Amino acid sequence: MDFWTQVLDFAETTTHRVGDRLLQDVGFAQADEKADGSLVTQSDRWADEELRTAIHQTFPDHGVLSEEAEHIFPTTDWCWIIDPVDGTTNFARGLPLWGISLGLLYKGTPVFGYVHLPPLRQSFYGYWQGNSGLEMPTGAFVNRHPIRTSSEQPSPNHFFNVCARSTSILQNPIPCKIRMLGVATYNLLTVAAGWSLGGVEATPKIWDIAAVWAITQAAGATWTALEPHPIFPLQPGKDYSDRAYPTLVTSQAELVSVFLPLVKGIGD
Questions:
Q1: pTM, whole model, 2 decimals?
Q2: In angstroms, how far is the first alpha carbon of the chain from the final one?
């Protein structure tokens, strides 16, 4: 088995196993509020530990950064970034839209992402070579079918996704129907799949975006950081628990000029 086949098989098998167990807890998990105001449940903590353990057993020379436990970026060339339950509020309240996210970084930059949404039985993944110099597969997929972004122009019958902290943009004339999904990864993955023309996230953390950075760009999307500092590569020894990465993702580069003026200031 070559390395990339092992990576995909591991991501698929592990997220599906963990996801099947989490499905038993939807709507029943006791939620606590963290310092940043977000929710966490025992299910999040259990899934985080399960994923970290599986990575250490399968890829012992790889580092791990996770939402619930390990926030310092390691010195290893390869590092997995974990979000054990993206959409914890949905999960805790019983809404069937949440996911498990795994991003694989090489020298601080994502080159592979896998996001499994157990309630929808959808699994997105993609490979993004970027400037890594790695020999690797290409493309983005959902349930192993290739996906590409939409080439259509905005209209009242197309979607643009917002997050709970970006609703201030609704005072502007948005040229699409608005959707709020409550899951940062899925917000942006719908752009990768061609279902939405764009999406904005005001305060995503590194575990919200590591996997979708690779998948969305592999599908042809344009990623626009809404702050002046570069996101990647991440720096060894740095604590990434608090930094947010306001982000706009569009289905085409030419749509950046359409949506960027509407989301300026998000995350400030």
A1: 0.95
A2: 46
